[in-house]
Design a protein that fits this description.
The complex is a heterodimer of chains A (about 475) and B (about 1000). With about 475 residues, chain A is mainly alpha-helical. Chain A folds into 2 domains: about 40 residues, no CATH class; about 350 residues, Serine Threonine Protein Phosphatase 5, Tetratricopeptide repeat (Alpha Horseshoe). Helices cover about 55% and strands about 5% of the residues of chain A. In chain A, α7 packs antiparallel against α8 and α16 runs antiparallel to α17. Chain B folds into 3 domains: about 80 residues, Sandwich (Immunoglobulin-like), CATH 2.60.40; about 700 residues, Beta Barrel (Maltoporin, Chain A), CATH 2.40.170.20; about 130 residues, no CATH class. Chain B has 14 helices and 49 strands. Classes of the chains: A mainly alpha (about 475), B mainly beta (about 1000).
């Protein structure tokens, strides 16, 4: 310290002498050189938040989660625009595509290349949101400020989302990497896990999520994931992985908690009592599904229901009346039928009537029916199947062989869940019927088409993703 | 001062002491007696006897000087035993001993090669061309004035060795890519540091791709603000010796732009006017209707779509085959790109001044139209002023310049080039019989509907600089340069529903408008001390300085949609939906110390040491500072005894330099882990998204540059040859490392331990071939042979770059499939299966390596004058490979037109054809092969060219015709002739969707009095 003072004194002396000698310029110069580095301290940017501060307040945590819900609604696999509902609907036997968009045509014509940009979008967005979920989980685990109850409640949502997105990825691409950390070094070289393992890890995440939800008294309604959403997805994944008893048990809890909407025309309204989880609409007041599926003019550039699907409806099925729309050209020569579960397009209504429904109760009945059938509890399986059939105004069935029952459930799922999040495509794969049923109606069909290709550019970035799925 | 690390404290103390010690040292050295007892007068003329104003007359002994007046007269007080040095730009200096004479008249001899007297701007200091140790290329107003261009970078094209400039698109006001001595950084930009009158000026566009991606890729060159006619010189600093004083920002080279100053003498008026007419250089050869339909129909059959084809209810699927006129033909390139563009430029300047004060004021206005349909046009107005003042004792000097520029650019929303190249040749007519837009029953998108979509960009730029200097002692100068610049850009892009097919029933609720309001503000202060001393044969000069700079940037992009009607589309407040796309503010602060130490022994041996210590706010705590420096030397061997009186060698210099520069070219705040606030909501909750990974450890990039050069002047300096060999190595690369999607990000900025080498040879030859009193012929040639190489890249194989780079290959390498052509028996493209797994995949079989950088490039120019006529021309040449028309489309049969080569498709067994059999997407194998063909070596072929970049024919009206008035009339052509083997449109612009540079002819007049 003493030396520093001496130095400073000497400098002051020199400066003083300089001023006396009118070498003011030099002094000024010296002073400026001297005042230096504090200029390099800058304020944090105004338009961004530093990561740690996000997890100091409940409202910013909600904002970070809102990112995931918002993006799922606006794009990627879950969205009604260019998501799996539309493209895998056209890829399977549900929809005919009438437009010119190359990517959408490629799905319809089974002309998919590993460079397909729609697939890249799905992949990128899903992993992007998985990172967002992981960052939230990490942030919550390391937050000293939030209460434990808050931490658990938001972590439950993030874990649910992580499980959900991974399950979809695996459904589309087969073996996929399961990402649980925010470590970019590790994630950058992550290898693919076989489909079965992905489902196992997703089930693990969902079970944790369910436990956290069950221990929390907080709830934000069905436009956010809840314990019921965790159960709904768990029931589906138990079914996919052959845990029949768990599937029966989990779906039963939901069937006890919820009731079916008796009026079919109200099933897709935002107040529908059978909705387990839905995404609230945003600037566009209603759903993208409505915009994508409803045909307003002929010629159209949209999607019409395939005759294959139309013919699969039994006569007097009220779902055909309530959930299918039609339009006839001015000359009366062409009539097109379209999915009309959602009634609103964004031009015909300015009030919010419909949200995008992701899980609803009737799937749970069908899950339980199938699991029961697998457990050879045919009587109750018939019962669950008939609950869905009766609501649609159809006669009860009483099938007494497991095979017939499975076939009936397979068919009922097609009718009940058509154009909903590619349920049909996943069923075709699950029941091993994709080749049988699609090779006749899709000229470009190859048996390897059951899996879509891992985006080529991603394999280039991470060679550990090799090998590419067969056929690409 | 409390919390600073020790290192910085040491530096402060060092600098403070150094700063204070120099004047003391100076005092000791300058105590020699100053005797002035003789007043010398005289008159300086040129060798024809015309008086020369502005000649510097300086005492060798006292270093004091005066300047000659309008009549060439001077008066100076000296000692009788002193000597006087007479110097003027463009003339050889002379030294005369006083020897008690009271009158000394001198006739200066014109220096035809200007080697000795030309002073080069090296940024913080000036150096004579003769004694410079670094590599600095230069063009002056003479080279720029004759080119009717709007951007200074355009004037540099083909003129300098080591500088590779390409225009990004032929659309007016768009940007240029500039690369000085190759690509140094993986993923980094090649933008050099631009300095205008001492003020760093960011060349980064502030336009948002959200608005103008389709017309100029969001790239609006901020350098448009300078009127090229106001430029006195452009210097490009290339090697370490020249750039190290710019430290961190010098890695990609430095471009110094100096504007014109007023000159001592009578008031001069300059008026210039010129008009240009432009056309697209080359059109593509595309299929005609007959060829197109033939190929299309074949595709239907090949894809087994006949049953669909014969079903009338599916006619909408192939309107070109089933609905439209089968004989109609339109040359869409002619319709959409065939207009003649015009450019009118008017310019006015007044300059002059007394010995103490000189001024230069100029104004210009430019209007340029496009080759597109519609009335798009670009307007630019500039006002420039410069003021210089020196006190009577010559100790105080002030330089002040201000330029103001207004741009107003109205362009179509999208470039029509892609449509012109892909619209079906039998597509319907644009208008119905009633003159309305024809939508042909909604079977096509009428391209002219796009004219309803507008893009407008307005920018205001103001740049002010001041340089104040004071000579405290006769060999000690203190100066400060101050600068302020502000660049404001506002733009909008509209997308009204009226630009869509009315039958689709879209109303104004579908209309959208996006606007961008951006600005960049920056100020800089650079105090400096300059000290020089002669000790016998040794000349010593020292420069010390500091820089403080702050730059703030704002960008605000907003999109409005759902308007009550289309007339309100420019009123965002009328929109029912507003979306804030971008709202960013960023700050960048920068502080540095720099210095130069120059030793010159007998004007023969020169040593130059420069250095800089840089601090940047772009780095995390503890990483903010970096040190850079260089050592340069020169030996003027022609001064050595043996060669001194050589009959042919008039000048010879060997020089070399080695040093480091760096880069912080990464954008602001990159070290922070952040969440971005988006303008979106879910259930009334604001959406925030992760935008950055916390990474405080990244630091400066380092770029080591080595250079040796040889400069020769022969035959009385009529032939000058400069040779330079450079080798630059960049390491500790700061790059956006691409990440796999599984990380949640597409890239991460960090230091990468890879080394990139750029080395090359540069030749510059200038020669005065013939000079007589009425005829003169000068030629110059520049040639650059660059070589880029990735020297080291640890863990390349396991990195995300594994499929992009190879050690030993250039950064500009591209991986391609190896095309075997079309299999004569199957009609499908074949490729080499490198790993022999029976499949062609991008990861395994793209093993054919090509380089997209040029093998060599350069320019050859000639200036011939005969009496009052001059003829200048500049040829630019480049040897390179580029993507050809197969890269754009190697698939025949799709519903889009393509290159005429597609007509040469495979037809039947045994055909040896260029293109595989037609398909329209029904056969995945064909589509995949077609896409691979576009990424094969067959699609990447020779794109070399020799282009007559610039031709000028000028006639100077004899002065005797109108007394006191100089009138020049000129005819100028740009891109008139292109010699190339390129398979495609323009070898300089290989894209299918961007307008290539235009061929222009300009007629103009220049009046001086």
């Amino acid at each position: 310290m003493k030396t520093k003072n001496n130095i400073n004194n000497a400098i002051v002396q020199l400066v003083f002498n300089c001023i006396k000698k009118r070498y003011w310029g030099i002094c000024l110069m010296g002073l400026i050189l001297f005042s230096c580095e504090s200029i390099l301290d800058i304020d944090p940017p105004k338009d961004t938040l530093i990561t740690e501060t996000v997890f100091e307040d409940v409202s910013t945590v909600e904002s970070a989660l809102a990112n995931i819900y918002y993006n799922m609604r606006e794009g990627g696999m879950v969205s009604g625009v260019n998501g799996i509902a539309v493209n895998l609907g056209a890829y399977s036997d549900e929809l005919n595509y009438h437009g010119y968009n190359t990517g959408q045509l490629n799905f319809y014509n089974h002309n998919i290349l590993a460079s397909e940009s729609i697939l890249l979008d799905w992949w990128n967005q899903a992993y992007n949101l998985i990172y967002a979920a992981n960052d939230i989980i990490y942030g919550l685990d390391h937050s000293d400020i939030l209460t434990e109850e808050d931490q658990n409640f938001y972590k439950a949502q993030a874990l649910f989302l992580r499980g959900y997105l991974h399950s979809l990825l695996s459904g589309v691409f087969g073996a996929t990497p399961y990402i649980k950390t925010i470590d970019y070094v590790q994630n950058n070289r992550k290898e693919r896990s076989p489909e079965a393992e992905v489902y196992e890890m997703a089930i693990e995440d969902l079970e944790t999520s369910l436990e956290l939800f069950e221990n929390s008294s907080l709830s934000l309604g069905n436009i956010y994931p809840t314990k019921s959403a965790s159960r709904a997805l768990l029931a589906r994944l138990y079914l996919y992985t052959g845990s029949w008893e768990m599937a029966v048990k989990t779906s039963s809890l939901l069937i006890d908690d919820f009731e079916l909407e008796s009026d079919l025309s109200k099933v897709f309204l935002k107040e529908s009592v059978e909705t387990i989880w839905q995404l609230k609409s945003g600037k566009i007041k209603n759903t993208y599904e409505g915009i994508s599926f409803i045909i307003n003019t002929i010629p159209t550039r949209g999607y019409a229901l395939s005759s294959d699907l139309l013919n699969a409806f039994e006569s007097n099925d009220l779902r055909a009346v309530n959930w299918i729309g039609s339009i006839t050209s001015d000359d009366g020569l062409t009539t097109l039928y379209f999915a009309n579960k959602y009634k609103e397009t964004f031009t015909n209504s300015t009030t919010e009537l419909e949200y995008s429904i992701i899980f609803r109760l009737s799937e749970q009945y069908l899950i339980r029916a199938e699991a029961l059938a697998q457990l050879n509890n045919l009587e109750q399986a018939n019962q669950d199947l008939n609950t869905i059939r009766n609501r649609a105004g159809l006669m009860s069935v009483d099938l007494n062989s497991k095979a017939d029952l499975m076939e009936a459930i397979f068919k009922e799922r097609r009718i009940e869940l058509f154009t909903e999040h590619a349920q049909r495509w996943f069923d075709l794969k699950r029941f091993g019927k994709a080749s049988d049923l699609l090779s006749d109606i899709k000229q470009g069909w190859r048996d390897t088409d059951v899996l879509l290709p891992i985006p080529e550019s991603e394999i280039e970035l991470n060679p550990n993703l090799k090998p590419q799925n067969p056929g690409y | 001062m409390k919390n600073l690390p020790l290192g910085i404290r040491k530096w402060r103390i060092f600098f403070t002491y150094l700063t204070l010690c120099i004047p003391l040292f100076t005092l000791l050295l300058s105590v020699a007696p100053q005797i002035q007892n003789l007043t010398v007068t005289g008159r300086i003329t040129d060798n024809t006897g015309m008086p020369l104003a502005g000649v510097h007359v300086k005492s060798v002994y006292t270093k004091k000087g005066v300047v000659t007046d309008f009549d060439g007269a001077y008066q100076i007080g000296v000692s009788p035993v002193d000597s006087l040095v007479f110097t003027a730009i463009g003339y050889k200096s002379q030294t005369k001993a006083v020897n008690n004479q009271e009158i000394i008249n001198v006739a200066l001899i014109e220096d035809i090669t200007e080697l000795g007297t030309v002073m080069i701007n090296a940024g913080y200091y000036n150096v004579s061309e003769r004694e410079r140790t670094g590599n600095i290329s230069r063009i002056t107003s003479k080279d720029i004035e004759t080119q009717p261009v709007t951007n200074p970078l355009a004037a540099m094209q083909g003129q300098m060795s080591g500088v590779n400039i390409t225009q990004t698109t032929g659309v007016p006001g768009a940007g240029y890519d500039i690369e000085i001595r190759g690509k140094n950084f993986i993923n980094g930009t090649t933008n050099p540091l631009f300095i205008v009158d001492g003020i760093p000026y960011s060349g980064q566009s502030l336009e948002s791709a959200y608005l103008s991606a389709n017309i100029n890729q969001g790239n609006v060159s901020p350098l448009n603000f300078i009127n090229p006619q106001d430029i006195e010189s452009i210097e490009v600093l290339k090697d370490a010796d020249a750039t190290a004083i710019y430290g961190s920002r010098g890695a990609n080279g430095v471009v110094l732009i100096t504007t014109k100053r007023g000159k001592i003498g009578k008031t001069k008026f300059d008026i210039g006017f010129n008009t240009s007419f432009g056309k697209v250089t080359r059109f593509r050869a595309l299929m005609n209707t007959e060829q197109y339909l033939e190929v299309r129909k074949e595709a239907v059959i090949n894809d087994n779509f006949e049953s669909y084809y014969n079903n009338p209810s599916l006619d909408y699927f192939w309107p070109d085959l089933k609905i439209w006129d089968q004989t109609r033909y339109t040359d869409w390139q002619q319709v959409l790109l065939g207009k003649t563009s015009t450019r009118n430029n008017l310019q006015f300047a007044v300059s002059g001044g007394s010995e103490q004060t000189q001024f230069n004021i100029s104004g210009s206005h430019l209007k340029e139209t496009t080759v597109f349909p519609g009335d798009a046009n670009y307007n630019k107005t500039t006002v420039y002023s410069a003021l210089n003042h020196g006190s009577i004792d010559g100790k105080f000097n002030l330089n002040f310049t201000t330029s103001l520029s207004l741009e107003d650019n109205d362009l179509p929303y999208a470039d029509f080039t892609l449509l012109a190249n892909t619209l079906e040749p039998n597509a319907p007519s644009l208008f119905t019989d009633k003159g309305e837009l024809n939508w042909e029953n909604s079977t096509w998108k009428n391209p002219l509907a796009a004219l309803d979509r507008q893009y407008n960009m307005k920018s205001n730029t103001i740049l002010s600089s001041a340089l104040v200097s004071y000579e405290v002692l006769e060999n000690l100068e203190v100066k400060t340069s101050l600068g302020y610049s502000k660049y404001d850009l506002t733009s909008y892009a509209t997308y009204p529903s009226s630009s869509l097919d009315p039958n689709l029933g879209y109303g104004a609720e579908y209309s959208t408008t996006s606007t961008n309001q951006s600005s960049r503000d920056s100020w800089i202060i650079e105090p400096q001390i300059n000290w020089s001393q002669e000790l016998g044969n040794l000349k010593l000069s020292v420069l010390l300085g500091a820089t403080y700079q702050q730059q703030k940037e704002k960008q605000f992009v907003i999109r409005g949609s759902d308007f009550p009607n289309n007339n309100l589309i420019l009123t965002l407040s009328a929109a029912n939906n507003l979306l804030i796309v971008t709202d960013t503010n960023s700050e960048y602060n920068y502080a540095a110390y720099f210095g130069r130490f120059n030793l010159n022994f007998k004007s023969k041996y020169i040593l130059n040491v420069t250095g800089r210590r840089d601090g940047s706010s772009r780095f995390g705590p503890g990483k903010q500072f970096g040190n850079f420096g260089a050592l340069g030397g020169a030996w003027i061997f022609s001064e050595e005894g043996m060669l001194k009186n050589s009959s042919w060698l008039s000048f010879g210099k060997l020089r070399g330099s080695y040093g480091t520069t760096g880069s912080d070219n990464i954008g602001d705040y990159k070290y922070l882990g952040t969440y971005d606030i988006t303008g979106n909501y879910y259930d009334d909750t604001l959406v925030i998204e992760p935008s950055g990974v916390y990474n405080p450890n990244f630091g400066w990039e380092v770029n080591k540059k080595l250079e040796v050069g040889l400069e020769l002047g022969m035959f009385d300096n009529r032939l000058n040859v400069q040779l330079a060999h450079y080798q630059n190595r960049s390491s500790n690369q700061l790059i956006g490392i691409p990440l796999a999607a599984t990380t949640g990000f597409s890239s991460l900025t960090g230091n990468f331990n890879a080394t990139v080498e750029n080395k090359g040879l540069e030749f510059d030859i200038n020669s005065l071939n013939i000079k007589t009193s009425s005829f003169q012929w000068k030629s110059s040639l520049n040639l650059t042979i660059p070589k880029n190489r990735l020297v080291a890249f640890p863990d390349l194989e396991s990195s995300t770059f594994a499929n992009k780079y190879i050690v030993g290959e250039p950064l500009t390498m591209i991986r391609l499939y190896h095309a075997f052509g079309v299999d004569p028996s199957t009609g499908i493209y074949q490729f080499e299966d490198y790993n022999a797994d029976g499949k062609i995949t991008s990861t395994d079989d793209k093993q054919w390596i090509e380089d997209s950088a040029p093998d060599f490039y350069g320019g050859f120019s000639n200036a011939i004058s005969y009496k009052n006529f001059t003829l200048d021309f500049l040829c630019q040449f480049k040897k390179q490979k580029g993507y050809n028309s197969l890269a754009i489309d190697a698939l025949a049969g799709f519903k889009r037109n393509g290159p005429v080569e597609l007509y040469q498709r495979w037809l039947e067994q045994g055909d040896n054809s260029l293109v595989q059999k037609a398909t329209m997407g029904g056969m995945p194998a064909l589509s995949i092969a077609g896409q691979s063909q576009s990424q094969s070596n067959a699609a990447f072929t020779d794109a070399s060219f020799i282009r007559l970049r610039n031709v000028l024919l000028n006639y100077k009206l004899p002065t005797s015709v109108i007394k006191g008035v100089d009138l020049n009339l000129f005819l100028q052509g740009q891109n008139l002739v292109t010699i190339t083997n390129y398979m495609g449109a323009d070898p300089e612009q290989t894209s299918n969707s961007k307008l290539p540079p235009l061929r222009q002819i300009t007629l103009g007049a220049q009046l001086n009095f």
